[in-house]
Amino acid sequence: MRIGLAGVGRIGAFHARTLAALDDVDELVVTDADRQAAERVAAELGLQMAGRVAAGLRIQVAPDADALIASGVDGFVIATATPGHAPLLRRAVAAGMPVFCEKPVAATLKETIELADLAETSQVPIHVGFQRRFDAGYLRARAAVASGELGFVHTIRAGTHDQAPPHASYVPTSGGIFRDCNVHDFDILRFVTGREVATVYATGANKGAAFFAEAGDVDTGGALLTLDDGTIALISSTRYNGGGHDVRMEVHGEKGTIAVGLDHSLAMRSAEEGVDFPRGPRKWSFMERFLPAYQAELAAFAAVARGERPSPCTVRDALEAFRVAEACELSQTERRPVALSEIEGIGGGA
Fold first, then answer.
1. Full-model pTM
2. InterPro entries attached here (predicted)?
């Protein structure tokens, strides 16, 4: 397969290494607004994948995304900054090219709705990058819910706690902590439970760097969600979790409870005497925490591009998570509960 990749920043370079390691990728074409960055990543990949290159893997650099799309790759991965996602997605769909797009597919709700409508009127498969759907723990939790192993589910706790805040320049265009950070929790909540969010009540606070408040954002957020079957979900997020990168979910049911992320890498310590859990080592970034999931995600996209499976995370799925984030932002701003029926867009299936 010949796969194209637009954007070689932190996540893009990470995806390039993953794609180059896939057995069914025999040519990887990369591009970036910074041509030198694309050439540097291609050169580094050539060294890292020397064995695969010797066996026939080709690593190319395209002058720009338009040239890459025009060259007719078998699949196109979008890992640019957020403003580039929607325009590139539209161009790839127009070219009939299977697409993998990092979240968010667009910066606004209106444009996300437009892209969901475009995707549903097109025959082109689009896979949106919510990697937690490929994490073994979340898949196990989903199976436990679906099988009835837990009985009825009454409470869920989920959170995304970054070890350190992003650079100040990132925050003004991030969309806010609920759209940027907790949107992953909202998507995986739908995925694990198979339910939709009915209402939200969200709040946020700042105790860290001033640049969050200056951008109209918060460094710590919390939300109480009620699902359409009455399940209560408690969601939290922070940019300041100095003990390590901490992403977890607890699913509490009538017959039992199952937890995701409860292993020796857990970024906390017990206050109980004689307890040596967790022993470490801890995870320090989302890429470290979800490395196997990212690898499985792009292997799945290769299967999507070959026509062997449907998209495991559609633009409609991304829209539903975005609608929950939008409701949380509105709730935080207006200090009131918000029903999802107040948010533009329609419900979909997880």
1. 0.94
2. Gfo/Idh/MocA-like_OxRdtase_N, GFO_IDH_MocA-like_dom, NAD(P)-bd_dom_sf
